[in-house]
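Quiz preparation item.
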């Protein structure tokens, strides 16, 4: 990685927290869809691949928050720099995607899993590029939600399941991610890592 020694246990705990909250998010989406009684949005079951895509969307958003925090820390702490941020993010992305795919496709042979992981990395990178465009994470009081990171993330999840204008799903995704952000706490992770 870099000249700074990174505690593997801290990295793994953080990876586990991201993946745990991503599963909570994917499970919440699955439950909302399968229990829907609204005429415009009837019940809908999602398969393993769609579930994995939703889970990975939550992973990517949580890693986007981590990347933003690391950016500011790397600027403030001269001993870190961009290389530290890039190396750490590469390590976290690799761990999180591997963990998520292994969870979703437990028992699947390694070769198809490895191929799927490669496609997940490409999808993750494309989404991170999209998410980097949004300066604000949340709307301020009195502002609209358009072009805020969390709202655009929720819209992506809705598009994945074919419910582009489902306000209940949009709102639920936003609430789940707010709770995840509080618990995952990128700032505490970075502080522990740099102790």
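Solution:
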């Amino acid at each position: 990685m870099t000249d700074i020694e990174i505690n593997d246990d801290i990295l793994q705990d953080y990876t586990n927290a991201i993946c745990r909250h991503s599963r909570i998010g994917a499970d919440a989406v699955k439950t909302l869809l399968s229990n829907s009684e609204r005429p415009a949005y009837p019940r809908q079951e999602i398969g393993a691949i769609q579930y994995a895509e939703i889970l990975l969307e939550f992973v990517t958003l949580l890693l986007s928050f981590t990347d933003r925090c690391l950016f500011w820390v790397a600027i403030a702490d001269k001993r870190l720099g961009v290389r530290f941020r890039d190396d750490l993010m590469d390590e976290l992305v690799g761990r999180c995607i591997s963990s998520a795919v292994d969870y979703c496709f437990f028992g699947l042979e390694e070769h198809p899993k490895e191929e799927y992981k490669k496609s997940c990395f490409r999808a993750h990178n494309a989404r991170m590029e999209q998410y980097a465009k949004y300066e604000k994470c949340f709307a301020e009081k009195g502002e609209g939600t358009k072009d805020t990171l969390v709202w655009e993330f929720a819209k992506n999840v809705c598009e994945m399941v074919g419910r582009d204008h489902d306000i209940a799903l949009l709102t639920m995704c936003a609430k789940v991610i707010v709770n995840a952000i509080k618990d995952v706490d990128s700032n505490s992770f970075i502080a522990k890592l740099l102790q």
